[in-house]
Amino acid sequence: MRTTGPTTRRRRWAALLGATALAVTAGGALAAPAGAAPTDVDFPTHCIPPAIAGIPPIDGTTTAKITVDNAAPKVGDTVTVTYTVVKPAASNPVDLALPADIMTPTGKVTLGGAQTGAVTVAGPKKNDPVPGKGAFPSFSMTGTFTVTAPGAITLSPGDYNIHTSYIMELDTPCTVTDPPAPVSETVTATNGGGQTNNRAIQLGSASGNPGDGVTVTGSDFTPGATVTLAGRSGDAQTADTTTVTADGQGAFSGTLVVNDRTTTGVVAYEGASWNADKGAGPATYVVVDDTPVPDNAQRLTTTVKAGTLSMTQAGDAVELSAVDFGKGGASNGALKTVTVKDFRGGPAGWSLTGKVTDFTGPGAKIDAGALSWTPACVTKAGSPSTCRAGSSGTVGSSGATLASTPDGTLTGGEFTVDAGLSLDVPAFTPPGSYSGVLTLTLS
């Protein structure tokens, strides 16, 4: 999951550009993101407090939402999913206050519609302090899945677990009482063309202690193939590996013992080394660091928080040069500088595109196809990604790419995007003011 990303889900920002043929002026404003927002859903949940709390199970209501970094993927794309528990059903089961940054959430997102299954998600060890018997704070978990079928794929919140590491290791598992929970998000997948890799894996759990075994089940591998199960730390493979053999239907089930505390996911693949065309994953997995703190010592932990993909513009008014009646020609100007900030910290790149309406004036119009641009893009030093300017040419009503960055192991950074604008005004266009709307979309 081009991540999505956050995606983040797909972000749409509109910039309004006006132009005239004789005394060219502009007007407009930056608009809010377009498109339907993910839906918060409520569902009954059964939570089991740790036995040490001495209290019965909690039957309550969880409020949650699902977001994706790409709501219109192609078959074969990887989609990043974020499961946010807005309001947990459970609370701190003990009178003892819990300090900050001791909660590690994990969970599942249920897929339905054109593709079924579950996505393993996990969150960082990050939380605000929780008072005794106080409500657990909101938290988010992320994971990925590979699109294997075209059509509408629904995403619903699934079971989740709140692991706390303070004095002792405790779990509060919460299950959906009447699964599946309501649909919070839907993505619509299209055929990507070419040969599709339908291999998929699921994990029996989303977290464990060092040395624990995690059950890995797979489907749609080559029947009889030797499949390697391996831990991943970011983009690198760890030393934790084992092999299994796919059955006559291409399915398998095996156990991978995970010792590496830096593990962030698990993959399965055919062949001597990882190959995305013959593998599946990574499925998110978190190793809970239970190393005892030595006497007279303190464990220091920090978290790098993922941000968002956003853009701003230096202004919303562009004045193109005037042209003479009877001569016409190029009415030139420059797009107000657009600044793109990609602070998601994931593998997804981004694309900034634009399309324009016809330019309307006094009883006449100038066709949208008359507007062309010459894009330019500059990458701020130190950015992991490198910005690529779009091709020079017609913008038109169908649109064109202004700038983009590719997918990669780690993407992000800051970028400034500009473009020279030229409107080809017909020679005998009636005198007056003509304006059109240029919409910029960041995704």
From TrEMBL:
Signal peptide: 1-31
InterPro entries: TAT_signal (IPR006311)
Region (Disordered): 384-408
Comp. bias intervals (Low complexity): 389-405
Entry keyword set: Signal
Listed name of the protein: Beta-xylosidase
Phylogenetic classification of the source organism: Bacteria, Bacillati, Actinomycetota, Actinomycetes, Kitasatosporales
